[in-house]
Amino acid sequence: DQQVKQNSPSLSVQEGRISILNCDYTNSMFDYFLWYKKYPAEGPTFLISISSIKDKNEDGRFTVFLNKSAKHLSLHIVPSQPGDSAVYFCAAKAGGGNKLTFGTGTQLKVEL
Amino acid sequence: EPEVTQTPSHQVTQMGQEVILRCVPISNHLYFYWYRQILGQKVEFLVSFYNNEISEKSEIFDDQFSVERPDGSNFTLKIRSTKLEDSAMYFCASSAPPTYEQYFGPGTRLTVT
Predict the structure, then answer these.
(1) Digit-coded pLDDT (tens) for B52-107
(2) B88 vs A97: CA distance, rounded Å
(3) DSSP bridge pairs for B78
(4) I want to staple A102 with a disulfide (CB 3.0 to 4.6 A). Which of B2, B34, B43, B55 is the partner?
(5) In this complex, do A43 and B45 lie within 8 Å of one another by their Cβ atoms?
C-alpha cells in the first residue's frame, strides 16, 4: 500500500542552503497533508501542514508546496541548520476521517 | 508546552503474553490514536478513538488488540496474546478540533521474544 511515497531515502545539504524534501501521493481523496520530523528514539514531531484548498503554506523557515494536479508536495527548509538533521515524514489524511497515512521518510543530513 | 507521554519506554514480553501500553494525551485533546512502526518500515495507523469509542481502525487492529480510556487522562492499548511480529515502536497521538494536526508521544518499544 504505497499511497504516500517519498522516493528519496536520504538527502545531504550544506548548512545555510535550501533543503527540498519531496512527497508523492496516489489517493485523490487525500485533502490534508502534514510534515513530521523524527529524531531517533523519539516520536514524530509535527512541523507544518497544508489543506488541499491551498498551494502553499509558510511557517518561519519551513514552507510546504502542494501541486494537486501532479499529486505532489514538497517541504522547503531555508536556511538549513545542523539541528534540522532528522528523518522527515510526509503524511496525508482523507476527508471524513483522521487516520494519517505516512510515507517511508527521508533522512536529511545538514552538514557544516 | 503540553506533550503526549507514554509508559513504559521499553517493554519486553514473551510470546503469548498480554501487554498494556499506556499513554497520557494532551489534556484538552478529544481524539486519540495508536500507530506503530516496525523497524525499518513506515509508521502505520492502528486505531482512532473519540467520544469513548473506536472511530476508525486498520486491518492490523484485529481481535487481539483493544483500546480503552479508563479514566479522564489515560489511553491504553492492550494486546491480548502477543506474537513475534508485534515487536515494534508503538506511538500514541492526540489531536483537538478544529485542526487535524496529531501530536505524538515518544513511543513504547515493544519486544516480543
Answers:
(1) 999 999 999 999 999 999 887 899 999 999 999 999 999 999 999 777 899 999 99
(2) 25
(3) B20, B66
(4) B43
(5) no
